[in-house]
């Protein structure tokens, strides 16, 4: 099978949990470009940048950063991970991704989700009770823009009843749009009904918890008359080092400060104890943390149980120092990925 392995980042700008040093925002942008270059050199196939807003991140506009990465790479698939569709305009987002697709030579994708924070939703005037309704309408508008040229936009959102001839169109005949979810039944059903690939995020817990989610997605695809081979992507935190002990020692302080909530930890978030963390890194846990052998074993076990076609690892969660992230990315691409592909065939 053509199993893809890549990385993704939220571009966190948080103090190092060990030294307390806070990186410079401009340096963090350069770090992410370097991580993408390292990923491509090592043989990984995907780079994702997640949208987030605030003082503790730099990826407020993932497409801008991905465009910079496109100019420094040649093969990597470049995806938002995710684009917060409720917080943006679907037409403008499509135009930006189409430009990225042209700049990159046809390597652009997007993962769309509802994951705007309460503060962002309030700033945009989005009420809590209409959050899902807004996402549904914007997603359908995004798909209309992708599938129709010129497009007529209809519905309660702005631009209704207006014909738009959007240029440039993407190089790819059908620009990939994945639906991001943590596994909620409504999101899984929506992705299947629309025939969209599913991008499943898991931050902790037994990875077996993803098995019924993907099974429900496959069943819903079939029930909706969609292609049951529509791909699934799994996104989890990961870190690879030369020994299992080194991998855990280096990553625990950072992941305990950021990976559980998939972002900067709020004051009331529980931290992982070392015992909990070791369990998460163990054979049944979601995290792909360990030496090369452990990483290969975990990735293969997850794929055989869940049946996903793509794995994205978040290697810099919680302020993992840049030089350590680069080392981990290199090991993942140069040593882990070839062995995984050899086993999976």
Write up what this structure looks like.
InterPro entries: Bact_Lucif_Oxidored, Luciferase-like_dom, Luciferase-like_sf. This is Luciferase-like domain-containing protein. It holds the Pfam family Bac_luciferase. The chain is α/β, with parallel strands linked by helices and 345 residues long. The chain has one domain: Luciferase-like domain (TIM Barrel, Alpha-Beta Barrel). The chain contains 11 helices and 11 strands. The strands form 2 sheets. The chain has an 8-stranded parallel barrel, surrounded by 9 helices. The chain has a two-stranded antiparallel sheet with strand order 5-6. The longest helix is centred in the C-terminal third of the chain and has 23 residues, at 322-344. The protein is globular and about 60 Å long. It starts with a strand and ends with a helix.
Query: Proportion of β residues?
Result: 15-25%
Cα shape: globular
CATH architecture: Alpha-Beta Barrel
Q: Count of helical segments?
A: 11
Distance between the termini: 6 Å
Amount of helix: 40-55%
Structural class: alpha/beta
What low-confidence regions span 5 or more consecutive residues with pLDDT below 50? Answer: none
Question: For the residues shown, what is the average pLDDT?
Answer: 89
Q: Work out the number of β strands.
A: 11
| Rg over alpha carbons | 19 Å
Largest sheet, strands/sense/barrel: 8 strands, parallel, barrel
Could you name the CATH class? Alpha Beta
- Walk across the major sheet and give the strand order: 1-2-3-4-7-8-9-11
């Amino acid at each position: 099978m053509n199993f893809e392995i890549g990385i993704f980042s939220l571009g966190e700008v948080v103090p190092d949990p060990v030294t307390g040093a806070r990186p410079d925002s401009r340096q963090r942008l350069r770090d992410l470009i370097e991580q993408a270059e390292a990923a491509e050199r090592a043989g990984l196939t995907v780079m994702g940048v997640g949208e987030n807003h605030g003082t503790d991140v730099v990826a407020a506009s993932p497409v801008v950063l991905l465009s910079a990465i496109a100019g420094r790479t040649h093969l990597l698939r470049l995806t938002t991970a995710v684009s917060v569709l409720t917080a943006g305009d679907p037409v403008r987002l499509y135009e930006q991704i189409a430009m990225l697709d042209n700049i990159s030579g046809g390597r652009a994708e997007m993962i769309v989700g509802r994951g705007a924070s309460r503060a962002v939703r309030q700033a945009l005037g989005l009420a809590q009770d209409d959050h899902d309704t807004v996402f549904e309408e914007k997603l359908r508008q995004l798909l209309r823009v992708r599938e129709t040229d010129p497009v007529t936009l209809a519905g309660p959102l702005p631009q209704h009843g207006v014909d738009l001839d959007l240029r440039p169109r993407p190089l790819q005949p059908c620009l990939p749009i994945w639906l991001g979810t943590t596994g909620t039944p409504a999101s899984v059903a929506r992705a299947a009904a629309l025939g969209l690939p599913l991008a499943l995020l898991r931050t902790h817990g037994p990875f077996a918890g993803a098995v019924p989610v993907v099974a429900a997605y496959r069943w819903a695809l079939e029930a909706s008359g969609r292609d049951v081979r529509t791909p699934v992507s799994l996104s989890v935190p990961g870190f690879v080092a030369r020994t299992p002990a080194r991998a855990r020692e280096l990553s625990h302080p950072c992941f305990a400060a950021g990976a559980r909530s998939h972002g900067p930890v709020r004051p009331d978030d529980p931290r992982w104890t070392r015992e909990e963390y070791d369990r998460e890194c163990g054979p049944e846990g979601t995290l792909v943390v360990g030496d090369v052998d452990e990483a290969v074993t975990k990735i293969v076990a997850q794929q055989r149980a869940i049946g996903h076609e793509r794995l994205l690892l978040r290697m810099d969660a919680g302020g993992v120092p840049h030089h350590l992230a680069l080392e981990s990315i290199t090991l993942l691409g140069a040593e882990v990925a070839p062995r995984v592909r050899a086993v999976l065939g």
